[in-house]
Specification:
Helices cover about 0% and strands about 65% of the residues. It is mainly β and about 120 residues long. The protein has a single domain, classed as AOC barrel-like (Beta Barrel). It has an 8-stranded antiparallel barrel with strand order 1-2-3-4-5-6-7-8. β5 and β6 form a beta hairpin. The termini are close together.
């Protein structure tokens, strides 16, 4: 059964440095309408492809009220045309280790809300 989470964006910053263009995003994570954590994502725009309008992305979900703290880290690609992100789980703490190597897809629902499905 896939893990389905809703991301609610609370911040988005665009920046540029010697490494190129970056987008940093963060916010709350909901499961079935209840807050279960926070997320942080980084898009390296200068590491994508101009023809496909994509960027490299990595994000981490930090789960609340877990002891020890639990998280899932994902790597993949962001499509600036559609806002969709695809990739796989690259690392996870013990409670979520079975998700490692599973595929993910993140789709925008609205300007500040998206749905992440793993598995």
């Amino acid at each position: 059964m896939p893990l389905v989470l809703e991301f609610v964006q609370e911040g988005l910053t665009n920046t540029q440095d010697v490494g190129g263009l970056w987008q940093v995003e963060g916010g709350r994570v909901l499961e079935a309408g209840e807050r279960v954590g926070d997320f942080s994502s980084v898009r390296r725009v200068s590491c994508g492809t101009e023809e496909q309008n994509t960027a490299m992305i990595w994000m981490t979900v930090f789960f609340l009220d877990e002891r020890p703290p639990q998280n899932v880290t994902l790597h993949g690609a962001h499509n600036f045309n559609s806002g969709e992100e695809i990739g796989s789980v690259s690392a996870a703490s013990a409670a979520y280790a079975t998700l490692i190597a599973k595929q993910f897809r993140r789709i925008l629902s609205s300007a500040k809300v998206s749905t992440l499905t793993i598995g």
